[in-house]
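Run log // design_07
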């Protein structure tokens, strides 16, 4: 029992990853043969590459610190790729090993740093399979670097296709240069040339086929997966538009603000947009308790301040439950939990004080956590600014900018953005972008002249 409990410890899992993964990889690339003492060199080299690569990304990629699922998905994709190596080696030889498959998958799911780490590990493994030929390592690492650069802003499936074309070209040029450097003559009938050309395309088709399944099971989504979720045709968004139309339109307006602000500061605008669409999805359960969905009657008037607080904050909990049930991306679920951080529901706190109740500010705080990504921080700020904008009656661009500055300063001074990664420069850019967007919303159209006599053909039933 103690051993099983120790396996749940993240440090133990990481140490086992460092020790056992290289051993498993060596076993796979040796075609599942009986272990030999001569495998030690292979084990040490693969283990070293794997250890150094993962240490590097663990410190640099924020998501690995937030969600353990990133660790397991990274390890799973590496192993899934290595399982293909022996088959590719048997069928296509040294130049047919699908390093690009694993590199592109990890890059589009986790970013360029993770893709770079995967490229080093997988290129090292391919080199060992090719009997320690340095030219193979150079070919795979350069082509992988090119692939990472080309798919770093992957937003359409065509982006991977274009990347495969360029990687094929770069790989062929590398092959020709290394052949000439070795003093050999070029043989255009060499089958290796065709294999080098086809390898990126085969890897691309495999990656595109596997990507949706990896996204679904890991809940780590690429930009194209986020784009498909945020297309307003998702069943949850349709249900939100029917059950809580006010919340739905608020979310759509918020998504535009978040997308523009994220683009301006270099954050993931697709994640910001999709997170904004789903951030208030929990309001579907009790839509009538939120002002944007109310008509005349406000049920909060008949409730105690503490009950008001519990009902208002419950939408975060319900939203997280809906996100898990429908397997929305982990980072979207984070946006749902974090878009209020640990801020206080001040309206009902003041109501409690006016009723002379013995309460403290901490009794009226959201459960959190605080935003842990730039995108969640942007959603928090946009949510507060958009709500305040709707509460004002007379606005002009100057008043809007002052209002947004005050809100952003208040949120910053409450230490809600400490873990978000947003800098003061980012906040200044966000204020400018929000001001521009909301100022455009107060512009009115010219009044069209009325017709001289319009015959009524319809009448609203009363």
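design_07 sequence
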């Amino acid at each position: 029992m103690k051993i099983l409990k120790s396996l749940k410890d993240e440090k133990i899992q990481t140490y086992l990853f460092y020790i056992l993964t290289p051993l498993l990889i060596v076993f796979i690339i040796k075609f599942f043969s009986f272990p030999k003492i001569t495998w030690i060199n292979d084990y040490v080299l693969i283990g070293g590459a794997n250890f150094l690569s993962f240490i590097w990304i663990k410190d640099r990629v924020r998501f690995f610190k937030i969600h353990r699922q990133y660790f397991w998905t990274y390890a799973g994709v590496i192993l899934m790729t290595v399982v293909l190596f022996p088959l590719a080696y048997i069928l296509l030889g040294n130049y047919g090993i699908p390093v690009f498959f694993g590199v592109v998958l990890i890059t589009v799911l986790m970013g360029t740093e993770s893709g770079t780490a995967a490229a080093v590990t997988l290129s090292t493994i391919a080199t060992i399979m090719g009997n320690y030929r340095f030219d193979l390592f150079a070919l795979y690492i350069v082509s992988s670097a090119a692939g990472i650069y080309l798919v770093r802003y992957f937003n359409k499936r065509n982006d991977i296709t274009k990347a495969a074309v360029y990687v094929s070209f770069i790989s062929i040029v590398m092959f020709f240069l290394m052949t000439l450097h070795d003093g050999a003559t070029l043989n255009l009938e060499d089958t290796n040339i065709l294999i080098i050309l086809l390898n990126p395309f085969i890897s691309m088709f495999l990656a595109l086929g596997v990507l949706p399944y990896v996204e679904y099971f890991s809940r780590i989504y690429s930009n194209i997966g986020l784009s498909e979720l945020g297309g307003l045709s998702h069943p949850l968004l349709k249900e939100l538009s029917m059950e809580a139309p006010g919340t739905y339109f608020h979310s759509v307006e918020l998504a535009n603000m978040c997308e523009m602000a994220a683009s301006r500061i270099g954050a993931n605008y697709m994640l910001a947009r999709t997170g904004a669409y789903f951030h208030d999805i929990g309001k579907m359960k009790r839509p009538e308790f939120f002002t944007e969905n109310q008509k005349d009657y406000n049920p909060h008037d008949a409730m105690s301040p503490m009950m008001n607080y519990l009902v208002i904050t419950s939408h975060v909990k319900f939203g997280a439950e809906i996100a898990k049930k429908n397997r929305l991306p982990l980072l979207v679920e984070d946006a749902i939990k974090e878009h209020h951080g640990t801020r206080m529901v001040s309206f009902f706190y003041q109501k409690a004080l006016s009723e002379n109740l013995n309460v403290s500010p901490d009794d009226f705080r959201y459960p959190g956590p605080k935003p842990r990504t730039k995108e969640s921080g942007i959603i928090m700020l946009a949510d507060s600014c958009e709500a305040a904008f709707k509460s004002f009656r007379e606005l002009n661009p100057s008043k809007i900018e002052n209002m947004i500055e005050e809100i952003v300063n208040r949120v910053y001074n409450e230490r809600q953005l400490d873990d978000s990664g947003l800098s003061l420069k980012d906040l200044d850019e966000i204020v400018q972008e929000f001001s521009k967007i909301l100022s455009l919303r107060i512009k009115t159209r010219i009044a069209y002249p009325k017709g001289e006599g319009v015959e009524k053909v319809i009448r609203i039933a009363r």
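Residues 335 and 460 are 42 Å apart (CA to CA).
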